[in-house]
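Weekly structure sync, notes
Attendees: PL (lead), two postdocs, one rotation student
Agenda item 3: pending single-chain targets
PL asked that the sequence for the first pending target be pasted directly into the notes so everyone works from the same version. It is reproduced below exactly as submitted, 121 residues in total.
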Amino acid sequence: MEDINLHFTGDFLAIDKYHNLLATLVDNNIQSKINNLDFDPHTISLKRVMDVNDRSLRNIVIGLGGTVSGIPRESGFDVTAASEIMSIMCLAENLDDLKGRLGNIFIGYTFGKKTSFCPSS
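Predicted structure, written out during the meeting:
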């Protein structure tokens, strides 16, 4: 069972969901009036992922639907297999290492020009 492709075991989909949940948390924090993580929306480097290799979706503009649709900014999609979360899963040696690496994901910069990392850390 350990030798089977990740897609067949459901792990591939779980990585996809975790990565997109992280992107949603970042967008939600930017959209809220609190923005306690102080993300500068124009510096966010974290893109969403999906298991479709469509080059036209790699670079898109989001948030164009008015105030309820978020802040307009450039974003895009990466292929799940090439996502940072997938790389971390492959490199992690144990659960503690996995947690540490997930907490070190670079998100972007704050308005104060400080680096901003994964909000789960």
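Discussion points:
- The chain has one domain: 6-117.
- The domain at 6-117 is CATH 3.30.1510.10 (Domain 2, N(10)-formyltetrahydrofolate synthetase).
Action: rotation student to compare against the earlier draft before next sync.
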